[in-house]
Structures are given as structure tokens and as C-alpha cells.
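Milestone M4 deliverable, item 7.
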Amino acid sequence: MKKMQSANPVASKGKIVLFSVLLAIPVLAGSLLVQWLVYDDWLHRTGPLRIVGTCIAALVTFIFAMRWQISVRERQLEMVRRLEMILGMNDRIRNALQAIECLTYVAQPEAMESVRQSVNVIDSVLREVLAESGHPQETGQPAAVPVVDPQIQSKSA
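Output delivered:
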């Protein structure tokens, strides 16, 4: 089974930390700017900036962004696990259908058409599930035994 390559891969832990830091920096800068505008420009109170509250706001933003991105990552990983399970089931179901179709062809050639129709219905449902999951569809028809008229085969033998 091939690994699925996605256009939007699951974010790594390093990217999550970087995103959180990049989100906290503007909060820190914005808080310092507002504090400077209020105290120095409007109230004309010069003195040291009060950065404890500003740092707490930036830290809270960092923690919130981390938790948010980690929960998004966990959901994406769970979705990848489910899709891999669907792909595995798809392969197993198709292999079992191929075996059923071959055995029916050998044992009861007259029942071949109804079995083929059932196999095609199951195959189309599998293709729909794969299409909805975003997995690229396989090209071509399912690997099934070609339809051969048993009367023609017995005459040629």
C-alpha cells in the first residue's frame, strides 16, 4: 500500500511552536505600543513600561495557539489513520471480490453475470468512498476475470 501524499501535510511540532511564537510576537508588540501610547502620549506619564501584563498576554496567546494547533494536528492525524484503514480495507475487499468472481466463474458459469453485477456495485461504492476521502482514484477497471462465454470455451477445448 502506498503512502498518501497530501497537498496539505500535517503540521510538525516545530511548525506548531513557530506558528505560536509568530502569533504571540504581534500581541507583545501591540500591547507595548498601546501601553506606550496611553501612558506616554495621552497621560504624559513617563516612566518604565509595565511589561509584566504585556508578557502575560503574549504567554497566554502562545499557550492558546499551541493548544489550538496541537488539537488540529491530532484531528488531522486521526483522519490520516482512518483513511489508511479505509485504503487497507479497500485492498482486502477488492482481493476477496476477485477471488469470489474467479471461483464463481469456475464453479457456476451461469451465475457469473449476477456475481459480476454485484462486484461492480461494490467496486463503484469503494471508488466513491475513495473519491470522497480525497484519495486519487485508480485508473482502469477493477482487476476481474474477463467475461467469457462458457459454451464458446467448451467448444474450443
